[in-house]
Amino acid sequence: MNKVLKTVIYIAIAIIIVGLILYPKLKSEEHGPEITPQQGSTVLPVEAKIIKPQRIENIIKITGAILANESVALKSEISGKVERIYFQEGQRIKKGDLLLSINDDEIVAQLERLKYTQKLNEDIEYRQRQLLEKEAISREEYEIALTTLNTTQSDIKETEARLEKH
Q1: Whole-number Å distance between alpha carbons of 121 and 113
Q2: How far apart are CA 60 and CA 58, in angstroms?
Q3: E strands within 36-158?
Q4: Count of CB atoms within 10 A of residue 125's CB?
Q5: Which of 28, 73, 94, 126 is 20 to 30 A from 46 (CA-CA)?
């Protein structure tokens, strides 16, 4: 160790020892001289209360809202008037279970119209194919009839898919 550090340590130890010796003397002088009952004849009045254990009621009145720690938000792919609900609140359900049905009158009517149109287009396509085989019409006219039939069949599939969502 270097000399300066040793000197600082010795001085610190000496200050601590002097402080320990003087501290009790300083403390007794701060309180002043003690008065013994023989020196002073005055009696100080004292108030006392008996403490009994009691139950403390903590009642807090507040307004607020309670939120569940778990919830599920269900949304339909389509909007419409709900006709029937197939579950009870709190009931367990499985994937694929039907939860509710939405009014599907318009979609059913549209599907029925498309099926009639399909039947008509099938008849037209059959006649156009007969005429094409006899070379009474051009290939283009037959393809137009076939495309119309295929488009109607696609529309039916699309409408059935929309009906399934209801």
Answers
A1: 12
A2: 6
A3: 82-85, 100-102
A4: 19
A5: 28
Which pair of structure tokens corresponds to residue 24? 């009790």
C-alpha 30/C-alpha 23 separation (Å) is: 11
* Identity of residue 57: E
How is residue 55 annotated by DSSP? P
- Decide if 159 contacts 110 (C-beta within 8 A): yes
Token pair belonging to 29: 């002088």
What is the residue whose two structure tokens read 């499985």? 94
Note if the pTM is more than 0.85.
no
d(CA 85, CA 103): 12
- The residues facing 100 across adjacent strands are 85
Q: Give the list of residues 6+ apart from residue 152 with CB closer than 8 angstroms, or none.
A: 114, 117, 118, 121
Length of the chain equals 166
Residue with the two structure tokens 């037209």: 124
